[in-house]
Design a protein that fits this description.
CATH superfamily of the largest domain: Beta-grasp domain
Number of strands: 5
Order of helices and strands: EEHEEEHHHH
CATH class of the largest domain: Alpha Beta
CATH topology of the largest domain: Ubiquitin-like (UB roll)
Strand order of the largest sheet: 2-1-5-3-4
Amino acid sequence: MAITLKINGENKLVSAPEGTPLLWVLRDHLGLTGTKFGCGVAQCGACTVHVDGTPIRSCITAHEDVEGLEVTTIEGKEGKEAAAIRKAWEAIDVPQCGYCQAGQIMSAVALLEENKSPNDDDIDAAMDGNICRCATYVRIRAAIKDAASSL
């Protein structure tokens, strides 16, 4: 099944069996390996990408379901919120192993695109479902607050 997907602003012709998760199309067909496989059941958040600006779990989203929509991965995420989050992530030294960080960053950026001054409850709600095996949650929250204050 060949379809055209809009990934990071570019149209990409993809040939994959119907029902193939978007995650595997991104990683195996398009070489965009920033989006990670974690659990495969939308519980960990490592596979988070944006579809039309909304964070979704790509491990449970069939690639054909996003045809005609804008898919943005960690490799293509730009803008002042993304820049602020990346800067804060480095300054606060958020990652340990780093495996979950693409998903964490994509969720954090989506939060700041919607809410420039999130409180702790807003951050908790936006980051719910993003699991960090290294438990850097305190640094993640601090980085989001730091990024928000810089906007």
